[in-house]
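Example record

The entry below shows one chain as it appears in the dataset: sequence first, then C-alpha cells.
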Amino acid sequence: MRKMGEEKKIPRGIPSSESLYFPAHNAEEFKAFQDGSENLTKNLWRMEDVVNVVFSKKFQPTYHETAIKFLQALSAKPHMDGAEIGKFVSENNVSKATFYNRVLPRLRRVGMIKVERETIVAVESKRKFRPMRISLSKTFGNCFSKIGDSWLAVVDEARTKK
C-alpha cells in the first residue's frame, strides 16, 4: 500500500498483455513478405503465421494452439454465440480459464474478433442476461495496414529528398 505523498512506481517494460511478438524480420519463423529489393511478395501468410504475432508459438504454445483452433472454428461460420463457444471449449479440452481469461480477451483487444452483447430481460423473472456473439473482425488487419502504409510513406518521402 502506498503511503501519503509517495509516488506511484511505473513498472519496467511493456505488460505482456499489451505486447505483440515480433521476431527479427529475417527470422526463419517470419514468413517472407518482401524480396531483396524491398518489394512486397504476393504470398499470403496462413492463419497460424498471423496468430504467431499475437500468441508466440515459441513462448505461448498453449494460447497459440487454442487461438488457432478457435479462429478456424469461427471462420467456418458468420458468428458464434455463447452456447457454441461453450461447446467449442468442452469439445477441444480447452481450459475455461485459459480460453475466457487469456485467449478470448486478447483476440478481442488486438481486433481479431468482435464481441457483441445483447441485453435481454426475461419476462417471467425480470432478470437481465447478456448473450455473447462473436465474429471475426478486420480491425487487426486495418490497424497493421495503416501502420505499414504510414511507414512506407515516411520511407518514400525520406528517399525522395536524397
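Notes for this example: The radius of gyration is 21 Å. The mean pLDDT is 86.
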